[in-house]
Amino acid sequence: MKIPVFVVHGFLESGKTQFVLETLADDYFSGGERNLVIACEEGIEEYEEEALEQANATLVMLEDKSEFNEKFLTECQKKYKPTQIVLEYNCMWGLDFLRDMYMPKGWFVAQVITIVDASTFDVYLKNMKSIFMEMAKDSDLIIFNRSADDTPAAAYKRNMRAVNPKAQIVFEKEDGTALQFEEEMPFDLDADVIEIEDADYGIWYIDAMDHPEKYDGKTVRFTAMAYTGKRLPEGYFVPGRMAMTCCADDTAFIGFLCRSSYVDRLKQKQWITVTAKVHMEKREEYNGEAGIVLQSTNIRSAQKPEEELVYF
Known about the structure:
Strand content: 25-35%
Number of helices: 9
Structural class: alpha/beta
Oligomer: single chain
Distance between the termini: 43 Å
């Protein structure tokens, strides 16, 4: 029997317990299940007995990391015989600790959810960025709760998409409604040639990943570093930039495939200014999904930007 484990994590007082309670109250989620809630830290919000009973859920509280071990999980399986588990996880323990943990037969991690308090996100990002980014990069769903009209949601979303392009990112206000916001671009989408400044490359890349249809058929121009690896299809290279996803020691090369007759003349890591037409194509490199492929119309040598790293 397959028993899904839903991992909910985030910093202390981010709203994890409230999220778990709201999820359990949804009959679509908990109806007909024997739910086991394992809470690895205790915050201000408490699990009310009535709410747990209505969701046919049992709560087990842990106070120390040493208690969370293989023996404990095996005993939970024998004692409660759950059909699904919600694990309110202590993010300070690290997901590697959970990954390395032996789980009872049938248990599997079905979804990892990160809860973020939008009102304190800047403080945590400044002081505990590496820990937060470690959480975000393995999440399937990232929820920014307690969002307000002045929350810089577009910037926060770009930060998350840079770390984890596959995660679903949601912004919720205090009343539980979705925060509506516009993602304004710092370049003219209606220009004959969309000029992407060095500082805006990361913004363009994330937006093009999220909304490739906006750029289909348009022409873009930007400065980038050429990647001409042998693993690329013949006649293709990737013009891109190094992006800081967490800290100076945690960078990644980001860019899109580009067809060009100039490939043989390009040197690895050469700085170039590329003018290219944007197309959407289904490709093996994109796991068979439709993604952006560039067709260069002009390539010229360029000076290295003053700031090589891209930020979001």
